[in-house]
Amino acid sequence: MANAQVQNIPNGDEDFVPIPGMEEASLKIFQSQVLLPFSLENGNVHAFLGPFVGQNKKKFGNTLLPEDTSTLPFIHSAKIDLSLFNDTTKIFRAFPPVKDRHFQWLLRVENAMKSSWSETGILDFIQLAKFDLHLFDPQMLLSAIFFWNRETRAFEFPCGFICPTLLDIAAITSLPPVGDRFYAGAFEEEISIKELLITWDKKTYLAFINAHVGEPGTIVSPSEHIAFLMYWLSACIFCTPSLQVPKYYYALAQALHLKKKICLSKLLLASLYTYLDEASESLSRESGPRNLSGPLWLLQLWLNSIFERKLSLT
């Protein structure tokens, strides 16, 4: 160690001693005995035992389930490309659009369907669409996704495993954690899709709004209500990667229009888990597009609530 070369940290005045080259046996002794000093703001000097080890080295294992190394969190990758943080607007382009785009349509439909939404249990949840959910912290979201394990469906934070739960969804969205299960074919098509005046060739969000919003002073028809619910589910809730209103949300929109007691909280949580899996896998790819979609706005709100004190939000 006496002959080790001393180098300066690029952005500081302190010096450090690099780990010298040595054989494995000697390196183990070095790692167990060397002290790394660090200073506190009050001037007191302390020390870590052993050299600093990269945080991306996995230090614990899952003792309950067999572990698949291909699904380990991105934070444990041998190499992390920090250029991911350069263009976060493109990565998170599927976030809910600005509220001004749909605000007037929301107010129009709400005035007519407020009691129906209340009976269905989605009135409070729809109020989130009145806020700009596209305002988010991309660095926080990406950093959190770095710790997502696609096998355990949990964040492997240094403090332990943690993940959003159904009760978390209920607390954040006011959606009840119980209700009817929804899946393809769960409900009969009581209103034929051919009977509704829905323009399917206008799928982009703005074009869909312009094609289906009713004139001021007119009655909100079933077609307009279902069209609004389809837009809301696509753009504000599940955040489709295509930035369009797909036809497959018709069945769910129709069920909500008919006041079916759908358990949206379970659908939302399942969707969040699915898209977290896709986001983690996308970050692990060496090449290809990395456009993240899904209800990541919910992840942002969940992180805010979990780390409320650390973020000084109160």
Automatic annotation (TrEMBL):
Pfam assignment, any one: PMD
Record domain Aminotransferase-like plant mobile: where: 121-307
InterPro entries, per the entry: AminoTfrase-like_pln_mobile, MAIN-like
Domain of life where this protein originates: Eukaryota
Protein name as annotated: Aminotransferase-like plant mobile domain-containing protein
Swiss-Prot/TrEMBL GO biological process terms: meristem maintenance
